[in-house]
Amino acid sequence: MDNKKVELLSPAGNLEKLKIAIKYGADAVYAGVSHFSLRIRAGKEFTFETFKEGIDYAHAHGKKVYATINGFPFNSQIELLKKHIATMASLEPDGFIVAAPGVVKLCREIAPQIDIHLSTQANVLNYLDAQVFWDMGVKRIVVAREISLKDVVEIKKHLPDMEIEIFVHGSMCFAYSGRCLVSAVQMGRVPNRGSCANDCRFEYTLYAVNEDHNTLFRLEEEPGVGTYIFNSKDMNLASHIQEILDSGAVDSLKIEGRTKSPYYAAVTAKAYRSAIDDYYDDKYDADKYQRELHTTKNRGFTDAYLIHRPFEKTDSQNHDYALSKGSYEVTGLVTEDEEHFLCKYKVYPNEDIEIFTPTGEVLEEAENEIGKIFKKGDLYYINFKKILTETNKELESVHSGNVNKIKLPGKLPYLTMFRVENVTEIIE
Fold first, then answer.
1. Transmembrane ranges (predicted)?
2. Enclosing H/E stretch for 150
3. Which is nearest to 12 in space by CA: 45, 47, 36, 61?
4. What is the pLDDT of residues 125-167, one digit of tens each?
């Protein structure tokens, strides 16, 4: 790899999250329109028009957008797929993320001007497979999540001009690189075509049957063990960024999560942006990034397989719960005019609320009849004396169901968030 900084690639589940990821530090985002994308639910958030708007927004900020066309099509879908590739190419994304070899070939024929990135669904673990796709015209490989850093280095050694992207954060699948059919069997929703029902996250009870006389009995379980039997913890490699970048083999660090919350998009982008920048400035501090990442909803964290082989892992499953609340709750999001916010949880007068800003923003303290913005320690807070709507109606409090814009005591950057610490962490 040359001396340029590694790319930070964030998920964009909709237009708002695309803007948040960019404002909070991502160099590039990946997203899709629902057809042929492995996140149909996220893809439905985009139309071709809003996807184009997102691409234009990213390019205006010097960032990139990679379009996901990483589903596995049936014969009956090929003609529709051809039209989809042509339409997506006309929007001028910076690359296509593709999984199936036939779709790679089709993209090269229909849109040779668009770079091809090979999806992690293609399960590349070695330089032989990487060479095959390189020869097909693939510019970048998103390696299998089961790969080791040693093997990533080996691929780069054999193919120094091929870009290598690795996942560093987000949900993990219990199946091999996500190639799963559980929800297809149970729910009729096909994971490899983008409609996974996340059946692996469900709570299961185990039974045994004696086939001779058809006796069925429930297996006794230790409390909390054997209940979420397929439930993988979430990947978190923030404490390993230094050794990853020291390897010189990785060109892009990817965060999973197109269906995650705007807060998740913001925190993960900002934390990994900080980790990357601190690495190049010789100020790397893993504890700092972990403090932020632990505020997001998660299933518990694991460093997955990049550093340790799968057979060495004994802590990659969460048997206790499907998803935790996270240690912070988002209460507000600043609007584009930078003079109001929209409530996302609940806000009361006379409470100190932490301000969480996009990367690189510097705040000014302010105070007036509405409230004050002030610094306490290393953090900034906002405290409302009055809760006033855009039309000057005063409220006793404001909750997430209220869609009125609420006035700020001073200007704050667009997409700034307000957050409060959860008193108790609730499991859902």
1. none
2. helix 149-158
3. 45
4. 999 999 999 999 999 999 998 899 999 999 999 999 999 999 9
Is a pLDDT exceeding 80 seen at residue 240? yes
Domain 7-176+233-302 of CATH type 3.20.20.70 = yes
pLDDT band at 1 (very low <50, low <70, confident <90, very high): very low
What tokens appear for 145 in the block?
Answer: 């999540």
Distance from C-alpha of 256 to C-alpha of 268, rounded to nearest angstrom: 10
Is 328-421 CATH 2.30.30.100?
no
User: What predicted TM-score, i.e. pTM, was given to this entire model?
Assistant: 0.89
Instruction: Quote the CA–CA distance of 95 and 116 in Å, as a whole number.
Output: 6
Residue 73 has pLDDT above 60, yes or no: yes
Structure tokens at 189: 């929703």
Residue 289 has which token pair?
Answer: 């990034």
- Rounded to 10 degrees, what is the CA torsion of 134, 140, 146, 149? 100
Q: What distance in Å separates the CA atoms of residue 127 and residue 386, rounded to the nearest whole number?
A: 62
